[in-house]
Amino acid sequence: xxxxxxxxxxxxxxxxxxxxxxxxxxxxxxxxxxxxxxxxxxxxxxxxxxxxxxxxxxxxxxxxxxxxxxxxxxxxxxxxxxxxxxxxxxxxxxxxxxxxxxxxxxxxxxxxxxxxxxxxxxxxxxxxxxxxxxxxxxxxxxxxxxxxxxxxxxxxxxxxxxxxxxxxxxxxxxxxxxxxxxxxxxxxxxxxxxxxxxxxxxxxxxxxxxxxxxxxxxxxxxxxxxxxxxxxxxxxxxxxxxxxxxxxxxxxxxxxxxxxxxxxxxxxxxxxxxxxxxxxxxxxxxxxxxxxxxxxxxxxxxxxxxxxxxxxxxxxxxxxxxxxxxxxxxxxxxxxxxxxxxxxxxxxxxxxxxxxxxxxxxxxxxxxxxxxxxxxxxxxxxxxxxxxxxxxxxxxxxxxxxxxxxxxxxxxxxxxxxxxxxxxxxxxxxxxxxxxxxxxxxxxxxxxxxxxxxxxxxx
Length: 459
Prior knowledge:
Distance between the termini: 65 Å
Radius of gyration: 52 Å
Strand content: 15-25%
Number of domains: 3
Largest sheet: 5 strands, mixed
CATH class of the largest domain: Alpha Beta
CATH topology of the largest domain: Beta-Lactamase
Strand order of the largest sheet: 2-1-5-4-3
Mean pLDDT: 80
Shape: rod-shaped
Low-confidence stretches: none
């Protein structure tokens, strides 16, 4: 009962069953009313014709002193399939041949005296069956002296209803069987992908993000759900890979300076570096590695705060040209050492109200990324421009460029193309650009280099 494969067909079949029963009841009820009306119409026609026949015979019998009509009521009953009754004054000498007597009180003579036909239900004297009847007045000389009643047992209608009900029941069972087959087919079509997704969800819940996802068969809601579930598992798998890569990268980044610090501390403790110059060199290395650890922890904290929107900016008037020059100068020595053609084109000198330290951090991260990917002897340039209410800082390199499918992933945390570094520089730059109210644009051509541009509103 808990399975959708069982409940879905069951609910469908119950709905079809209820609808079929309601339809059958309405059909039978309509047929009953129709049969009853048709029966009364038929009885009225018969009563009208037979009453005219008996009235004409009665007139001739009075004028010519005839006895009862030569035709017999049983013959008329055999021809019409109805029962004939008479209520009223005897107009023939003796009894009217074969007509059954009916008490006058069974009829509404006010209706008959107007010349109208009365329809009624009654039980004949000495009988136990209910009859449907039509009574037609018989007049002589403008006076109503009796009524001819043509009747049929009501049980005959019930027999017709039962026959119809049986046929409707057979048709309903056949329709139910066909509907059951269709429901089974449709429910199977609906539940198969849902069950496949359910099994895949169980695997994902157990941490198996490589679960097999069925191919969507259509573009309906289930197909949409399948596509989104596939995207979710791919993202989870990618997130797991990034997490593993992050753990390995961060552990490596932490282990290297810690190892260096521990080695120099042990050397100083054991007196291996007794030369003042050697001691000073060891202390410089310890300081540099400590700064390296501090930068790594700071980057992790900054990214966590930016992604959780718990990052606050310090607003102050900033000469953006000086900020860019500071970032540019900090990489001049590395550019000289590696023979990189390092240029700056600062064509504007805007003053903005923003967080200068964070702008410096973004530009520094972009320059660090450019130096990481630009080969020795390459070219890197920094430009500053202001136009149309926008201030832009662009960093252009002559590195290998970025393929189209990687232009989104490079901004994901802990992702690195070559597996080196923490993969935090560009994600932090992107988050900071958004926090500063701007954006970070990328233009790249494989084999010819890349151009990262920080765009900030001038106001």
